[in-house]
Amino acid sequence: MAQNYYQKEAETMPYEQIRALQSEKLVKQVKHVYENVPYYRDLMDKKGVKPEDIKGVDDLHKLPFLTKADLREAYPYGLLAKPLSDCVRIQSTSGTTGKRVVAFYTQNDIDMWEECCARAIVAVGGTKEDVCQVCYGYGLFTGGPGLNGGSHKVGCLTLPMSSGNTERQIQFMMDLKSNILCCTPSYAAYIGETLKEMGYKPEDNHLKAGIFGAEPWTEEMRRDIEKSLGIKAYDIYGLTEISGPGVSFECQAQNGMHINEDHFIAEIIDPETGEVLPEGEKGELVFTCIDKEAFPMMRYRTRDICVLSREQCSCGRTFVRMRKPMGRSDDMLIIRGVNVFPSQIETVLIQKGYSSNYLIEVDRVNNNDTLDVLVEMNPEHFSDTVKDIEKRERDLADAMRTMLGIGPKVHLVAPKSIQRSEGKAVRVIDKRKLHD
Ligand code: ADP
Ligand code: ZN
Questions:
Q1: Measured in angstroms, how far is the CA atom of residue 220 from the centroid of ligand 2?
Q2: Which of 304, 323, 426 is the pocket-test mutation for ligand 1 (most atoms within 8 Å of CB)?
Q3: Which residues fall within 8 angstroms of residue 102, CB to CB, at 6 or more apart?
């Protein structure tokens, strides 16, 4: 397959060269941060590290971590490394796991971020001939602005739809012949479902690829979306603190996301001890921004759990790949002492032929954790007898018990009764927190 790159020289740079470039940028960045961010200088001083101790990537582990708690403590300006008059943009996290944090960008920061998104679009086959429909939310959330900027850089005809109003999305997608769709995977699934209800077949649209991210999704869900939209579905990852979408992106090999290593250094650490783990081991992803000017996070702990791989990729890119994060360490539910990720439940559901419309309810009754999973019936099962439905519920509960190690109670509910998501889907209601 012909490979296209947006910035070939950077994207295919030999590993030793990337490492040397990272070292050079890191040394400068540490100095910049030490001199301009008193909050981080204090952390370095407390750890007894001086900028001159950092001579390259091998010394990275000496630097202190930053966490979301630091961002909240330093809110709003405490981690700013440039005068506000040099900043041109503020974005904010979507607040999935608590109080929002804000991030600042200079014009160079915006350009770098948009270039990362452009790399992602070109990697899935996007060109200036394409119509790129962006239905991530616009505004403070980074999804819309990031992909919008990337699409402009590639020269695509950009449709800045933002999220919501699904029928209008579909009307424009058809009338204006969109080729590339950018949104959350849960919204892509909803668009696919709506297209079908409107009587369209997957081959009726002009889409060739989708760039879906901002939330965890399973391989099973990928295949489902590919079928319903008749496209290839690619993953994209990012977080506001580090810039936004495009920190890493999938290529046509669909086998993990390449991290833009000329701008970000990735490490995997043991979330308990903070120790750096060797390549290939599963742990918490940590990023250091070596190009950002206004908001340069150093060793920022993402809480996303994943694995890195330097195995050669068939696309020719040399950037390290990260496996799909299957949820953050704080998405993990501990139910009756057992670790449960919502993605495990999603895998079972889709393998068994159900959709990705589900809701997990956790509660505590008489000091015992309960796990209930609400799953939408497929329309063809709606007329089943009560006995048939109970059998299906038992069957699903058994499969989940095998996967999770604990048994949930499964409730099949009417088609379309679980609320659809236009942005990041909410899949878990943990009522135990109310009793604490
Ligand atoms: P918030 O932390 O409020 O959700 P962001 O909107 O910046 O703020 O979201 C970043 C987070 O979204 C990441 O840390 C990660 O947990 C999740 N995320 C982003 N892209 C993906 C992806 N492709 N797969 C799984 N999770 C993702
Ligand atoms: Zn690749």
A1: 20
A2: 304
A3: 75, 76, 90, 91, 92
Question: Does ligand 1 have an atom closer than 6 angstroms to the CB of 216?
Answer: yes
Residue from 190, 92, 74 nearest 425 by CA: 190
Q: Which fold has domain 8-328?
A: Rossmann fold (3.40.50)
Q: pLDDT class for 434, splitting at 50, 70, 90? A: low
Residue 54 — φ and ψ, nearest 5°?
-100, 100
302 lines ligand 1 (CB under 6 A): yes
Q: Is 97 in the pocket of ligand 1 (CB under 6 A)?
A: yes
The CA-atom distances, in angstroms, between 259 and each of 29, 137, 297, 310, 393 are: 19, 23, 16, 11, 41
Q: Which of 24-38, 263-277, 356-370 has the lowest mean pLDDT?
A: 356-370
Residue 121 has pLDDT above 60, yes or no: yes
The set of residues, in sequence order, having a beta carbon less than 8 Å from that of 189 and lying 6+ positions away, is: 221, 224, 225, 228, 355, 356, 357
Identify which has the larger pLDDT, 170 or 93: 170
For residue 284, give both structure tokens. Answer: 């918490």
Q: Is the CB of 93 under 6 A from ligand 1?
A: yes
Contact (Cβ atoms closer than 8 angstroms) between residue 310 and residue 15: yes
Measured in Å, how far apart are the chain's first and last C-alpha atoms?
A: 55
Q: If you average pLDDT over residues 360-385, what whole number do you get?
A: 91
Class of the CATH-defined domain 334-430: alpha beta
Smallest Cα–Cα separation from 148: which of 177, 120, 174? 120
Q: Which amino acid, residue 270?
A: D
Q: Indicate the domain borders of the chain.
A: 8-328, 334-430
CA distances from 410 to 17, 362, 400, 415 (A): 53, 12, 9, 15
CA angle 206, 219, 287 (to 5 degrees): 100
